[in-house]
Specification:
Distance between the termini: 58 Å
Number of helices: 10
Radius of gyration: 19 Å
Shape: globular
Structural class: alpha+beta
Strand content: 15-25%
Helix content: 25-40%
Order of helices and strands: EHEHEEEHHHHHEEEEEEEEEHHH
Strand order of the largest sheet: 4-5-10-6-7
Bound molecules: flavin-adenine dinucleotide
Largest sheet: 5 strands, antiparallel
Length: 279
């Protein structure tokens, strides 16, 4: 049970959502946007999230788009993880999000909710980092399209009253060789000890990671090491792991040493599967 009362709004258009947010804020209310709602419900039940009002963006048509438009894939923020996988629209994204939670939860969990999650994993963001994705934000001043990385500082920084409408990915990324690998502690349905998404573009491997540090990331230094042709595979991987942007997590799921071990093996597997040639 959710231990507090809240107002529920389900606007049908972007301007209606923005206006509803502003009106509620002007009344001094704490408002949050919501799409799948699984995280809102889970954290509210244990008093770790609270709101006076929620705005459910599932009624907005643009947030449900899942199609090719011209030279890009357009993925609405309220599209469920299962729909993304079943559509095969962007196979790397489909495979990566298929490893999140269980099938029933993935019917509810949305891509917008996953990449804006307060949990550290946000695995859905990995393919978006590799494919130079753009995001369309709804704001009171109108919609804005900008590179995902412009609003990413460990987590997505979306301004007050704004919300994510769509994700845009150039269609050409859909046909590049890719791999996605998630290692968990025991069961398949669990948070990652290590999750890696990778693709090969212009004969260079790109990699993005979740579960390794306190936030998902893609790193130029790590990729430079993995693409250094003068090194052996083991040397590339050791160098890449020494260049991570933050300390490796040490928690109840996995010690730092074990996570490092799993990370190196996973990188080996990824490089092998993409046939990234050793020196
Ligand atoms: C059983 C289970 C296992 C899980 N395992 C994993 C895992 O292995 N890896 C992983 O990465 N995640 C995992 N998760 C986390 C899950 O992906 C997140 O909790 C996700 O946020 C839920 O999506 P939702 O659409 O239900 O989010 P919601 O509850 O709707 O929203 C989550 C957050 O995102 C914000 N938000 C939602 N939509 C938007 C938008 N369009 N614009 C701006 N902000 C928005 C909300 O305000 C809220 O703060 C798991 C969750 C469950 C239930």
């Amino acid at each position: 049970m959710i231990p507090f009362d809240f107002e529920y709004y389900k606007p049908e258009t972007i301007p209606e959502a923005i206006q509803t947010y502003q009106e509620l804020r002007n009344q001094g209310k704490k408002v949050i946007y919501y799409s799948g709602g699984t995280e809102f419900i889970t954290f509210s039940r244990i008093n770790q999230m609270a709101a006076d009002a929620i705005i459910d963006i599932k009624g907005i048509r643009e947030c449900h788009v899942l199609e090719q438009q011209g030279d890009q894939f357009v993925i609405g923020s309220a599209v469920s993880l299962n729909k993304i996988t079943e559509s095969s629209i962007f196979p790397l994204l489909g495979q990566t999000v298929k490893q999140i939670a269980d099938h029933t939860s993935r019917n509810k969990i949305t891509i917008g909710g996953n990449i804006n999650s307060r949990l550290i994993y946000r695995e859905g963001i990995l393919p978006l980092l590799l494919s130079d994705a753009k995001v369309k934000l709804a704001r009171s001043e109108g919609e804005l399209v900008l590179p995902l990385t412009n609003i990413l500082d460990k987590e997505l920084k979306i301004g007050s009253g704004e919300f994510l409408v769509q994700i845009l990915v150039k269609k050409s990324y859909g046909s590049l060789p890719f791999a996605s690998l998630k290692k968990t502690k025991i069961t398949k349905v669990s948070y990652p000890v290590v999750s890696i998404a990778a693709l090969v573009k212009d004969q260079r491997i790109r990699t993005a990671f979740s579960g390794v540090c306190e936030y998902p990331f893609r790193s130029d230094q790590v990729e430079a090491a993995l693409n250094e042709t003068s090194l052996s595979m083991a040397e590339k991987i050791n160098k890449a792991v020494s260049l991570l942007p933050a300390q490796i997590i040490d928690d109840i799921q996995a010690s730092r040493e074990y996570r490092t071990f799993v990370l190196k093996n996973a990188l080996h597997e990824i490089m092998d599967s993409l046939e990234v040639a050793p020196a």
